[in-house]
Design brief:
The chain has 13 helices and ten strands. The chain has a domain of about 190 residues. Helix 8 runs antiparallel to helix 9 and helix 12 packs antiparallel against helix 13. The chain is of the alpha+beta class and about 375 residues long.
Length: about 375
């Protein structure tokens, strides 16, 4: 018997001292695009477009244009499809739907930026006509603003639409006038049809969404920020200083309310009295349950409070705050005429006072091919 007990004790001791199973953490690489693709693969279906947007921009800034192109093509439907609500969107608009459960396509400024980047890649691929179609699509999406004073007011979308039109031997003057009105300046240069090097620039960090109001029902923005307000470009003997033409925080916050804002406000309006009933009715019911003569009224009050709380909790009023969080704050553009062959460009980013920010300077090399535009994206981050 003692031997049995001893053996049992040894077994228990061995079990207690057994090394726990250690699961290795997933191996992560320094390849942000590949790591981003893993996040896309593991994301819920409703979030995949958001992750494709984010990773496409990472790929684009890294010069991995094939991957950026594929990612954007996987999540850019036709404009008509974007403007048509799907089943999840319709459910999100219902009383008991949650806006964050709909398939993410982004707010109009985010959708416009997806088309902006896709247009850049089309132009890079020698398809300026398709690039122009992207700029037109983006302006159409941005045109659906409640405050019509800020509809279709992306400066560069109109400017580039007209630029491509001029390069294709059309008349882009109307688009140039629109761009100058939106920019509130005549600093936008006239179109140079012979220019063959297109430099897209972006500065800073774009806006982020958050929920405001008692129930988070108001979609609000933390404004983006950028120490950079302009850039000085030098290619050979040519030097050009370009200002930021578009501000994405301005684009995000000046459109006026959304249809969804009214729906969420209605949900919030409904929740307020329901929350009051849910708080007060059970307390009154408990009080009435004491005296014998009022007990009959107690149970219905308590039940009404519980029901009101259940309905209030089911009416999800929170705004969808998912954000394309690696967008820039500012956009700029410059065009050059250069002969075919290898070239180098030096970029100095300038602060609001026009002073260079040395830590952000860039020196890049590129090739110009005969009969085709060279297109670059240069970011301060």
């Amino acid at each position: 018997m003692n031997k049995v007990c001893q053996l049992a004790g040894v077994a228990l001791l061995a079990a207690g001292c057994a090394a726990p199973e250690i699961k290795k953490a997933p191996v992560a690489s320094n390849d942000l695009v590949e790591e981003g693709k893993k996040l896309i693969s593991g994301a819920a279906e409703k979030d995949k477009i958001l992750w494709r947007y984010r990773v496409a921009l990472v790929a684009l800034k890294a010069g991995r244009f094939d991957e950026a192109r594929q990612l954007l093509d996987e999540c850019l439907p036709t404009v008509g499809a974007i403007l048509t609500a799907d089943e999840r969107t319709l459910k999100a608009r219902s009383l008991f739907g949650n806006e964050a459960h709909k398939i993410y396509v982004g707010e109009p400024y985010e959708q416009a930026m997806a088309y902006f980047y896709r247009g850049l890649i089309y132009w890079m691929d020698g398809e300026p006509d398709n690039a122009r179609a992207c700029y037109k699509s983006a302006q159409l999406i941005d045109g659906d603003a409640k405050d019509k004073a800020f509809a279709s007011d992306f400066v560069l979308l109109d400017y580039l639409d007209g630029f491509v039109t001029a390069k294709l031997l059309g008349d882009g003057s109307d688009m140039l006038r629109r761009a100058r009105v939106s920019a509130k300046t005549n600093a936008l240069p006239d179109y140079d049809r012979v220019a063959n090097v297109m430099v897209f620039l972006q500065f800073g960090f774009g806006p982020l969404k958050h929920g405001g109001g008692k129930y988070g029902e108001r979609l609000q923005y933390h404004a983006g920020h950028s120490a950079v307000r302009a850039a000085s470009l030098k290619i050979g003997e040519q030097t050009m200083q370009v200002q930021a033409f578009d501000d994405l925080s301005f684009q995000a916050t000046t459109r006026g309310g959304r249809l969804m804002d009214d729906i969420l406000a209605d949900k919030g309006t409904l929740k307020k009295p329901l929350d009051a009933i849910a708080t007060v009715a059970p307390a009154v019911g408990v009080v009435l349950a004491g005296p014998k003569e009022t007990r009959g009224a107690a149970l219905p009050l308590i039940g009404a409070g519980i029901a009101a709380g259940a309905i209030s909790n089911s009416a999800e009023a929170m705004a969808d705050t998912r954000t394309w969080n690696n967008l820039p704050q500012h956009l700029a553009f410059a065009a050059f005429r250069l002969p075919p062959g290898p070239h180098s460009i030096t970029v100095e980013f300038l602060d609001g006072a026009g002073k260079p920010l040395p830590k952000l300077s860039r020196a890049l090399t590129f090739d110009v091919r005969a009969g085709r535009d060279t297109v670059m994206l240069i970011a301060d981050q």
